Amino acid sequence: MPDLLANLNAPQLAAVTLPPQHALILAGAGSGKTRVLTTRIAWLISTGQVGPQGILAVTFTNKAAREMQSRLAAMLPINTRGMWIGTFHGLCNRFLRAHCREAGLPAQFQILDAADQLAAIKRLLKNLNVDDQKFPPRELMHFINAHKEQGIRAAQAEAYDQFTSRRVAWYAEYEAQCQREGVVDFAELLLRSYELLQRNEPLCHHYQARFRHILVDEFQDTNRLQYAWLKLLAGRGGVPPEGGGACLFAVGDDDQSIYAFRGAEIGNMRDLQREFELANVIRLEQNYRSHGNILDAANSLIKQNRGRLGKNLWTEAGAGEPIRVFEAFSDVDEARFIVEEICDLVRAGAPRDQMAVLYRSNAQSRVLEHQLFTLAVPYRVHGGLRFFDRQEVKHALAYLRLIANPDDDTAFARVVNFPTRGIGTRSIEALQEAARCANASLYNAAASLAGKAGTSLARFVRLIEDLRSETRDLLLPEVIDRIIDRSGLRQHYLTDKEGQDRLENLDELINAATGFLREEGATSGDGDAVPDGGPLAAFLAHASLEAGEHQAGEGQEAVQLMTVHAAKGLEFDVVFISGLEQGLFPHENATLERDGLEEERRLMYVAVTRARHRLYLSHAQTRLLHGQTRYCLPSAFLDELPPELLRKVGRAAAVARPVVAGSGQAAVSAGAGALRVGQNVRHARFGVGVIVSAEGSGPEARVQVNFGAGGMKWLALEYARLAPL
Known about the structure:
This protein is α/β, with parallel strands linked by helices. Helix content is 44%, strand content 16%. The chain contains 29 helices and 23 strands. Helix 2 crosses helix 3, helix 7 (114-127) crosses helix 9 (162-181) and helix 17 crosses helix 21 (451-470).
């Protein structure tokens, strides 16, 4: 027993050794919550308060469940494999396998993953003769899952207009189809388990009596149905327990609730306090991960949120290094600084796999990947694909390849029915046979097919021919923009609930083409038009090369790239948080949603607390958006950090900025007038300053202004709207 409880701090010890009662453990980032959970289970078993079969432990990932089992096996001389430790879905699957007859399922029922569920919905809509262009299957899948996660069957779903009424009817048809085929989707696992326990009181009493202690990890990420399921098993959900109920031990952090878009209800934590009448909330505030400056910054940031349960992270590790803040002129400048800083750290002996670059949006990875590729730095995209490997990017590139070379059968096969055009598998097989017999490409063989298949294929060929004609005299970024629109890709992802990231990646592909032209000077001799081959062929080759080589191989030490969402639960010695600009982080969509800004701030809090020793925050004054330069304002989150914790850093070689000599000789145009070096100007955000240097002309004109306390800023005159004084 002393060994089991050794090295626990006072709040951890209090949480582990609580007497049998309901409890909420507010566990801050890096405070040892996994250790507390597993030690609590080991303590309950080793003190004889409960047997291994009386424990129900719920995690949010299979990896966390395996880690918990592994730790328990090291602590106790028991076989942990038979214990009920797992995710909500895994535990409900186990429950339904044991009670399939009572649940109305066949003994060998199958589980539909997300791809299988989407395929089943597509098949359903096709059988019902529903136009899947007008009513996208993925949108219906989100509608069904959202209702199930609220515990709402089709029979109870509200049909408040004609459009919703149709979706409710298809939801009912989908339920019938799944029941007929003996399959369940992920949301159904939990809903059917909950319904069975609710209506079958003897069965519910059995499990209430069996599980004397229910322990839940990441409680802040539970949705309404998951919380209702937990309450039912703990004897607070409508089926009173016989002889008491289970003790619910919930561990979570309301400051790290970042999954509202997946249905997570941050309000569950307050409901737990009220409904279970919790007299005492234990706070784990001592952090074992980060240095003090990082934690002070995180505390200062998150205290801006209202309605928190409240805690303050601290550490015994000392203040550590100041937080480095870099203001870049452009997104390319920012990426170059980050990658060169990584190279300097590696030369100083820092391991690459202990460095992470975080970003708010997946699309931001493209310019970072390009700089890593340029400097031959191995990297790995965590929890996602490299930019040029992403589905939507590969679709757009396939259309580009067909314009450059209609005989590219791989590109043809990829997009001939994407977005869907009614060209099915049999039509493709017939086309492939015709092409083989004629020794021709799929594109050229399309004219040989008759009937409905021939008509549909002819329409696709006409689309490609029209695109070739329409884009002949356009700039490369304009070619890509036109293809995204005319192919139907943009409209396809607009109707997808999760299509925002994909649309941002398509816009970033336009940015990639713009940057490529600037870097390579890939223009024809008679201007910037894109002829056959030329810049288009060069850009496609560039995309293939960047996609094919530089992601690190298995086991190779590599820099980690990921979104902030993907970084949850991870930690690194060095963390770069990039793109800290208004509209990007916090994301512009946050202003459209209730409490959206607070969720963005929690996301920033998660990002900051990933760093152990060194933290970089970077933002750019300009960023390419849809192929155009956009002037950016620094993120408001930067203003919420104590200035004494920050150190502004720069890199002289980051961007070649020729300084214009003289105190008043050089001038740059600013609207109808002109500005000169040495002139005083006023900026709406930064106040009064003096121009110290200038460069460029026309749309590329920019000046460097000394704003005194506001620092030195490079400003693009096209966007800055400087007023001469």
